[in-house]
Amino acid sequence: MSLDKFFDTVNQDQDNYVAKLKEIVAIPSISCVAERRADTVRMGEWIIAELERLGATTKRVEPGTQQLDGQTVDLPPVVLATYGTDPSKKTVLIYGHYDVQPALKEDGWNTDPFTLVEDKEHRLIGRGSTDDKGPVLGWLCAIEAHQKIGLDIPVNLKFCFEGMEESGSEGLDAIIAAEAEGYFKGVDCVCISDNYWLGKTKPCLTYGLRGINYFGISVKGPAQDLHSGVFGGTVHEPMTDLITLMASLVDSQGRIRVPGIMDQVADLTDAEKKTYEGLDFSHADLHAALGGAKTELHADPQDTLMHRWRYPALSLHGIEGAFYAPGGKTVIPSHPIGKFSIRTVPDMDPHTVDKLVKEYLEAEFKKLNSKNTLTIICGHHGKPWVSSPDHWNFVAGAKAVERVFNCQPDLTREGGSIPVTLTFQDALKKNVLLLPMGACDDGAHSINEKVDRRNFVEGIKLYGAYFHELAAVKTE
Ligand SMILES: C[C@H](N)C(=O)N[C@@H](Cc1c[nH]cn1)C(=O)O
Ligand SMILES: [Zn+2]
Ligand SMILES: [Zn+2]
């Protein structure tokens, strides 16, 4: 079977695909703030319209409401769609998310985050370009290219696109559980494109993710912010308590200081250690992704990967309600909320993690003898996931990589979290493959997020080739 015509069409039509990416990057579908909820819903509606234009049957599912920024708001729709129902074909379920992380030009972007621009190195820069609008659009472009040349897609496609992945996938697990024997019945395998290659040139197949527990530390003092000249030295300052608590969570070598956390981590076996040996990863790749900074914690690249994939990490994210703007405001913030998360790994249990963190911070706060009020906010959870890369779904993914990139993919785990992965595996009892298009230096969640034009275009080819390899692969 030759896919050359499909590949040629993708090459020829790439400017149209990039124009579509520009259209959707312009929709600021930030799921974590109420004022962007209407845009997030609009983004979901754009996908429904595009799927219908391609001839898919869609189902818009409303997951309910949530409390956000002091309001009750509708959760964005979960978009389910079916393309092909031939009982003689395999059926693959494709998941992606259409929400994005916040982004402001003032964060340090060189260009407006919601205007996709292409620079001289053919980087397509804009929020969501790699996480996850580029990959989501990529699947739809692969269908379009097949249609254009009259090439049959040899598998049935089901889609599940959500708008809350960056905010804990609220509402999605219940929909999957309710539809496991309904909409999702007949699915043979699952594919997700929402992570990144190990380096900049070689694709990978991914069989593991870390989980996440997200926290807030609220320290409340006076009823309003104070003048530090009038009140400094006379009151317990909430920021002082908060900074002390945040500093107690992790040391500068990245070691988590909450007792009991490391006790839950699965032991490293010899077999697992071997999986790190042949990997094409050096600290040069890490430095590239750090924008040239050489600030690694570990001397050995294998240790770096283990600490990304199979050990937990605690990261401090920010402080809501604290003064952060330029200039020298002499304020005592009255109610700062510190944000941090723990990336979790097998065999950590999210509820045990919450309990250990809460107990530890309350005990540390007691030591401060402060008259302020502490509240620990246990936010969203996502469980870690590890699966077997020996399944035929991975064989099809590897063959697709070989066809498009002429090389064997790396087999990787991922340090980030996609909470729904384990839900699909458990609820549908089917293998899940992560098949990314983005490179290690794409800067997801960061400033100047990008996807390289090459990755976007070759990624569309990869998805199309995967359809054909899935159809051909032996399942015994
Ligand atoms: C790996 C995926 N593209 C991703 O970025 N996932 C997020 C999920 C999340 C959890 N809380 C907020 N976002 C991540 O790993 O941070
Ligand atoms: Zn993300
Ligand atoms: Zn993502």
UniProtKB/TrEMBL annotation:
Binds 2 manganese ions per subunit. Its cofactor is Mn(2+). It comes from the Eukaryota. Mn(2+) 1 binds at residues 131, 166, 445. It holds the Pfam family Peptidase_M20. The record marks 227 as: Important for catalytic activity. The active site is at residues 99, 165. Substrate binds at residues 194, 227, 330, 343, 417, 445. Belongs to the peptidase M20A family. This is Peptidase M20 dimerisation domain-containing protein.
